[in-house]
Design a protein that fits this description.
The protein is of the alpha/beta class. The chain contains 10 helices and 6 strands. Helix 7 links the parallel strand 5 and strand 6 (169-171). This is Methylisocitrate lyase.
Length: 232
């Protein structure tokens, strides 16, 4: 997770990256280590949840959560690690207790996490606008994040609707995954059925390399007096 986060964060360090840190990957020491490694990798914010170590996707059934005390310890360890590093990494506390223990317990856990040092609250699997408004109201002034997983437990709300409900941040986990899967699958099916990819003729090898940094690489080479890229 850290390696992938570092790769993505450094594609353009000016764009902040929020990365999933699951349960923190262990007890307080592992949580602190996770925060330190994510910080050094260039991650701007990470979310840590209250599921048991053998966790599952927040939009699947059958989840189990740890006690509120253990959850608070995870967040406290994360906040202490951040302060020790003099880091500005944003700590997002996520609870999955809505499905397992109900709305009131989920709110209690998020408030405990905020008291332990979390910067942002994250109620996973919110199902109604009433729940959304109430979690934002109850956690104020702590900002609340919306996990917009299309076709999951949460209704598909627009950015304007989310803002009206009171959310301050939205993440879109499927926004890149789903279109990429469909495009790749359809292309390979086309090869199987027709024998060609039918890729846009303007998408040349040079365009691909330009997307991933050809101009920047050329500039570095030229500035150093090189001629490696002059005929590209």
């Amino acid at each position: 997770m850290r390696e992938h986060a570092e790769m993505i964060a450094n594609l353009n360090p000016r764009i902040p990256l929020i990365a999933d840190a699951d349960t923190g990957y262990g007890g307080p020491n592992m949580v602190a280590r996770t925060v330190a490694q994510y910080h050094r990798s260039g991650v701007a914010g990470l979310h840590i949840e209250d599921q048991i170590q053998t966790k599952r996707c927040g939009h699947l059934g059958g989840k189990e959560v740890v006690s509120v005390d253990v959850f608070q310890q995870r967040i406290s360890a994360a906040a202490a690690a951040r302060d020790k590093l003099a880091s500005d990494i944003v700590i997002i506390a996520r609870t999955d207790a809505l499905q397992t223990h109900g709305f009131e317990e989920a709110i209690r856990r998020l408030k405990a996490a905020a008291a332990a040092g979390a910067d942002v609250a994250f109620l996973e699997g919110v199902t109604t606008k009433e729940e959304a408004r109430e979690v934002c109201r109850s956690l104020a002034p702590t900002p609340v994040l919306l996990n917009m997983v299309e076709n999951g437990a949460t209704p598909s709300w627009t950015v304007a609707e989310a803002r009206e409900l009171g959310f301050r941040i939205i993440i879109y986990p499927f926004a890149a995954l789903a279109p990429a899967y469909e495009a790749i699958r359809s292309t390979y099916l086309r090869i199987k059925e027709t024998g060609i990819t039918d890729i846009d003729p303007t998408f040349t090898p040079k365009k691909l390399f330009t997307v991933v940094g050809l101009k920047e690489a050329t500039a570095v080479d030229v500035a150093a007096g090189g001629q490696l890229y002059e005929k590209v």
